[in-house]
Amino acid sequence: MLHYTAMATPEAALERLCTPDHEVSAHYLIAPSGEVVAMVDEVSRAWHAGRGRWAGLDDINSRSVGIEIANDGASPFSSLAIEALIPLIRAISNRWGLAPKDVIGHSDMAPQRKCDPGRRFDWRRLAREGVSVWPDDATAQEASRADFTTAARGFGYPDCPDDVLLDAFRQRFRPYAQGPLDAWDVGMAQALARRFPVDPRAALA
To answer: Which pTM value belongs to this model?
Structure first.
């Protein structure tokens, strides 16, 4: 799971993530320089996600490896940080048998609470590198709210209010889109659900 630190410096983020009183942690922190700091062993639980749901599963915090990227939430992400992130995701995925569709953002599983890694994060680049997914085969469809909701949930998004779901989806897949639901929102959601559907057995795991 990917996050941004929303702090002014990586040093401040590291201090917060390593101080028990703050009750927040992550497995890795990536600095703008590309330095990767390992903080919690991957087999151990870090406090990085909180309440949320993805692909029919609860307690995503205990099922995921948390990666914090040092970024204030408003600025472009450092190219060196992204270049360090890609092999890190690839290595984690190989160790745990994860597919590119399993790489998500904090806002994906907790759309009513969180907005990181945010609209500045380049998910499409990660997909080109084979460590995330993108709806390359999407075509515009009728702007049906019911069809969009069904498809978004079929891809993995949790049940939440319509406006929250649309905003969470756009943060990741259409970061500069504005206004009401449109044909491309539906087409992209349907393409994702078609290619990367939720395993109905996942909720039983």
So the answer is: 0.94
Q: Which long-range contacts (CB under 8 A, 24 or more apart) does 121-128 make?
A: 121/2, 121/4, 121/69, 121/77, 121/172, 122/77, 122/82, 123/172, 123/173, 125/82, 126/85, 126/86, 126/89, 127/100
> CA 116 → CA 10, 89, 119, 127, 143, distances in Å?
16, 17, 8, 18, 26
**Both structure tokens of 5:** 């630190």
DSSP, collapsed to helix, strand or coil, labels residue 119 as coil
Q: Is 35 a catalytic residue?
A: no
- Give the domains, in start order, of the chain with CATH numbers: 2-128 (3.40.80.10), 145-200 (no CATH)
The string over 20-32, giving b where at least 16 C-beta atoms fall within 10 Å of a residue's C-beta and e elsewhere, is eeeebbbbbbbbb
Q: Are 185 and 148 in contact (CB under 8 A)?
A: yes
Tokens describing residue 61: 């915090």
Q: For 85-142, what is each residue's pLDDT tens digit? A: 999 999 999 999 999 999 999 999 999 999 999 999 999 999 999 999 999 999 999 9
3-state secondary structure of 82: helix
Q: Collapse the DSSP code of 26 into the 3-class scheme (helix H, G, I; strand E, B; otherwise coil) and give the result.
A: coil
Q: Which helix (H) or strand (E) holds 93?
A: helix 79-96
* CB 17, CB 25: distance < 8 Å: yes
Q: Which of 15, 68, 129, 142 is catalytic?
A: 68
Which helix (H) or strand (E) is 3 found in, with range?
Answer: strand 2-4
Nearest to 67 by CA among 24, 20, 29: 29
